[in-house]
Amino acid sequence: MTRHVSVANLADVPEGTMLRVQVDGTDILLVNLEGSVRAMQGICSHEYFELDQGFLTGDSITCALHLSRFDLETGEALDPPAELPLAIYPVTVQGDGSIVLELPDGPVPVNE
What is the pLDDT of residue 21? Predict the structure, then answer.
């Protein structure tokens, strides 16, 4: 079973920016890349560090702690030391601008 959780408004995440939100105590990173909103786990899969403190570079995000890069579409770790991908969450932007995530019932999945 899945649930739909409204986490922000599109106006909160202008194009080319990111925003960290929480669902049930789990950090989730929203990224607006060329008008398309993506959602992924908000903490680096290598070591605890908030990814909203990192850098958007093209279609990837770089963790500022050890410079691991992750693909924004797939979550794949592109550079070491990170090896595990970021968990990716399906996103819908509603007509009113609400950003809604599709998440499984229970704990929000993350890769650690």
Answer: 98
